[in-house]
Amino acid sequence: MARKSVSRWDEIEEESKKGVEIWVGVDVHKLSYAVMVLSSNGIRHNFTTPANNQGLIKQFMDRGIRITQLAYEAGPTGFGLYRACTAAGINAMVVATSRIPRTPGKTAKTDKADSAKLAEYLAKGLLKSIEVPSEAQEAVRSKSRRRSKISQ
């Protein structure tokens, strides 16, 4: 896959209109999301956006970009992005940090690099989703954790 960086959405939009597969890797944080958009033709676009699930989805929908799949790491931000994506018809997956392939040697760990790796591994089929609990299951787990913390 050849690499070609773009600073605008134009080429990604064109790729999507042609039916080219589009993968999205998101490095999720409490206040912001680092996002890498990757087409099967190697065209890339990365950006940072405020941590707003609907806002992120709207950026793709408003441009008519059809996402083949979106992935992000499981973490303290929970499953809100997954649920918002699936409600919008986007195939999303949450990946356990321990199950993301790591390249040997010392590499710089940045949000941009993390989102790029997620998109690349997703495109290559190297990621496996964890099971996302239902909102009811998540509420029970939260209540159980709270009860355990109080009783200590």
CATH architecture assignment = 2-Layer Sandwich
- The CATH superfamily bears the name ATPase, nucleotide binding domain
Given the structure, what is the number of helices?
5
How many structural domains? 1
- Structural class determined from secondary elements: alpha/beta
- Looking at the structure, the CATH topology is Nucleotidyltransferase, domain 5
Instruction: Assign the CATH class.
Output: Alpha Beta
Report the order of strands and helices: EHEEEHEHEHH
Shape: globular
Compute the CA-based radius of gyration.
16 Å
For the secondary structure, the number of strands is: 6
Note the main sheet. 6 strands, mixed
Q: Mean pLDDT, as a whole number? A: 90
Helix content percent band: 25-40%
* Terminus-to-terminus distance: 53 Å
Please state how the strands of the largest beta sheet are arranged side by side.
1-4-3-2-5-6
Strand content: 15-25%
Low-confidence runs of at least 5 consecutive residues = none
